[in-house]
Amino acid sequence: MEKSGLFQIGDVAKMFHISVGTLRHYEKSGLLQPEYTDNKTGYRYYSTRQFECLNTIRYLRVLDMPLEQIADFINNRDVERMQIMLRQQKEMVISKQKELEIIERKIENRLRQIEDALSSQLDTICIRQFESRRIAWIENTLSINSYLDLETSIRQLEQHQQNTVVFLGKVGVGIAREKLLNGEYNKYDKVFLLLDKEDAYSGPVEEIPEETCVTLRFCGGHKEAFVYYKRMMDFITEQKFRISGFSKEITMIDYGITDDTEKFVTEIQIPISHSEA
């Protein structure tokens, strides 16, 4: 065959700023067959009449359109079909933009939480006001000797979620009011997810009203928390406060971020009200 007016695959790849491998992939996918293939050398050649088709493929790929959909259009080209495809792709782009906006806000949340943890005043009892918060939780009595002891409960909370717990709110554990009053600080009653505003959680969610809490942050994880609960309960007794709910114990920096245990930060929150006496 006369090869004048034909371009080798490498030259076409350079002209359209794509790789030779991409052109071969288009061929295998049935999108664009070479005008001529030399049986002796295996060299592939393309003609100028294929350039418009290749340009259309490249345009649709930039729009992130699946190859199967592009192949269907290439084989059944039509103005109305193109309009439908572009409208569908526009809807997908808008949806992805919304998803990316949520991810951006969640990254900002995590950065703020880490910065907050790094600037923590440790071993100091404080009284803080918290706005209303949403939590998803399960009742589960457990002792925690390592972060692995939480895994089963986390998987239960994660079940049926489109977004994994990695992108959902912070995991925490809690001790019921009755156990706090009885000095039982080594067994937890519930595992929960403290949800961010952006989180869409499939399952029961409880909204905790605005509350005042006695709080304390310390260097360490759940297994070191016992002694800090005792200090906080002594403070609550001395100040004649009344415990009004379950504790919320959240690791702000843990194995999910660093292996350096000296950088771990955990916060305990115990909700309180003024004694009526």
UniProtKB/TrEMBL annotation:
Quote the SMART domains the UniProt record gives: HTH_MERR (SM00422)
- GO molecular function ontology, one term from the record: DNA binding
Q: Which UniProt keywords apply?
A: Coiled coil, DNA-binding, Repressor, Transcription, Transcription regulation
Q: Which residues cross the membrane?
A: none
Q: Which domain of life is it from?
A: Bacteria
- InterPro entries associated with the record: DNA-bd_dom_put_sf, GyrI-like, MerR-type_HTH_dom, MerR_fam, Reg_factor_effector_dom_sf
Q: Which residues form the HTH merR-type domain?
A: 6-76
Lyase in keyword set: no
Keyword Coiled coil (UniProt) = yes
Coiled coil (residue ranges): 86-117
**The protein's name in its UniProt record:** MerR family transcriptional regulator
Q: Which organism is it from?
A: Lacrimispora xylanisolvens
